[in-house]
Write a structure and sequence with these properties.
It is a single chain. It is built from 27 helices and 19 strands. By secondary structure, it is an alpha/beta fold. Among the domains are: 7-122, Chitobiase/beta-hexosaminidase domain 2-like (Chitobiase, domain 2, 2-Layer Sandwich); 485-724, Four Helix Bundle (Hemerythrin (Met), subunit A). The strands form 5 sheets. Strands 8-7-19-18-17-16-15-9 form an 8-stranded parallel beta sheet. A 4-stranded mixed beta sheet has the order 1-3-2-6, with helices on one face. Helix 13 links the parallel strand 16 and strand 17. The longest helix is centred in the C-terminal third of the chain and has 31 residues, at 547-577.
Length: 727
Amino acid sequence: MKHHLSLIAYLPLIVLSLLFPFRLNAGNNPARLPVMGTIERLLGAKAAAFECHLMNKQNGHDVFEIETTGGKVILRGSSQPAIGYALHHYLTHYCNCQLSHVGENLSLPDPLPVIPGKIFKESPYEYRYFYNYCTYNYAKAFWNWDQWEKEIDWLLLHGINMPLAIIGTEAVWQNTLIQFGLNTETIGKFIPGPAYTAWWLMGNLEGWGGPVSQAWINQQVSLQKKITGRMRQLGMTPVFQGFYGMVPDTLRKLFPDNKIYDGGRWAGDEKGFQRPAFLDPTDPLFAEMAAVYYRELEKLYGKTTFYGGDPFHEGGNTKGIDITTSARIIQQAMLKANPEAIWALQGWWDNPTDALLAGVNKDHTLVLDLYAEGNPQWERREGFSGIPWIWCSLLNFGGKVGMYSRLDKLAAEPARALQSPYGVNLKGIGMMMEGDKTNPINFELTFDAAWTDKPIPLQSWINDFVTARYGAFNSTTQEAWQIIGQTALNCPKAQEGTSESIFCARGDTGVNKAWRWGFINMYYPPEKLQQALKLLLSCSGEFSGRDTYQYDVVDVTRQVISNYAYQVYKEMMAAYAEANTLAFNEKSTLFLQLMDDQDRLLSTRKEFLLGLWIEAARKNATSENERDLFELNARTLITVWGNEGVARELHEYANREWAGMVGGIYRSRWLAYIGVLNDRLLGKDVPLPDYYSMETAWTKDRSPYPLQPTGDPVKIAGELYSKYFNQ
């Protein structure tokens, strides 16, 4: 079976074509396409200057055209995501506009630029994939429909046609398990809180952060129906959660005669989370439960083409399991429910294993090479033995804040993979970041790469990116971004996301990371980034009113201060080692002052406000008790992550350099640590602070944080640059 996007996504257009027998091509398409709704939401009255038409694919690939006719901009595409990307191309290259997750510049010129002749582009890829399971928690755990509507418009503008859509899976499981005799209370202990659904669906935990209310489960069903309805309306095919054998651990007791195995522990050894159990696919109960699961999934959200679900994604107990046979049966159950189904597997660590892939039908399987910019599997595993695959970047781990990319890899690696012997089965480009509210350049570059079979010339591309981001050509901003692109955004080695801020770490001697396997390392000269900041700030007279410029100035200043603070920390610790009390007091005072100034800087932009994260959690709840529970979810995820055993492994994995965090719990920890060192300099034998107790107390605190930015971001950035670096 040839891989293709689900016909369901195009059902409204197919029905229209039967009722009105016109060809779906340029200049002969009287039906209003739903993409026009996106254009109207983004551009307001100026949307009237655009027309959208469908055209035929070429060589089986998505294509788009842009031209100006009769005073209007004509956007044609072989799908609505192709039309969306055509709009993106026009806005970027002709209007100097950009829509990003962090800053918006949609001030269109008047009149709109005329296209000389006709622009035509063809994508060599069938799929443009988006989202990691973890994105749904580190970035979107508490989102409402207003946020999702804007997000789906952003997806369309970037040509994405294959988004993961896993909200509302709680109801599918609830409706499934109740048919196997589980009561509401037992099911409630299986379903996690709203900040932990990703790791539940990936088989890492159950119940943690719950129980959630029935009202909330119903709310999520309604939200998922809106999300998937809009995705399909715009020609996207959502990826749903499939059934792969994960079941509640309690089923081992309820069905003692069936082959249901202990899943083991995740994160923290014997004190970590209890994983869900695994129902052996060779057991008759598997086929029965899978059939019910897919039936209930379809009842709520309809069919799709793609289904996720990764057995033993991050380890787990495989004793007694025949992986190859299991894979075959898992997929057979999927295909029985939907003969068009394609199993979308995550390529993470060494998964999917060769043993698993040996059991699948290649025509109904797609591997997402999740971390291809850092640890690509496609080459060392020889193109997954002929199974279709997608080149994906990860880049962000845990939703951490920090300037990071591997721009050279994003610009060149997809084309290299496409031209390789394994390129024949390369079906798409995707992004599987765990957080998406940082580094907008990564998103623009990745989805531009989806429309070419050649490496992107990075230097000229960066210049175009900056011009679109700020709305006008400026050689100084381009110079600044060339420096940024060669330093913070071009890490020369594979590392799991951004180098962390010293502010986000627990105080100790020799600190070189915030979370257990993290790192605070500098892979570029920090003075180079200071130079880029100076150049950016010198353009404030022209761009200070631009939302995108304001965000960038704050983000670069934040990074420069974090870099400097690490140097101050090392000087502080050197003074302590030398028992130089005077120097220690000077450096520790400076370190805390930097934290205060960083918090003040971050307070100027909504993207860096802790208060909005907590407020979203509370608003997502359906009762006062649930509001407190959801706030606990929100605070725990970004600090200790889980229970005490899990915290030893994962505390600070999702650290946030946000206003309210830097000046709050992070500062309190560092103040306590500096106090310990002061006591030790006086000859007192005192232990390190009990950080876990401090952090868990903070997770249970209900003090509010600001919901609105305060202060002029560019002015405050300039003041801090002058205070610390203008020497």
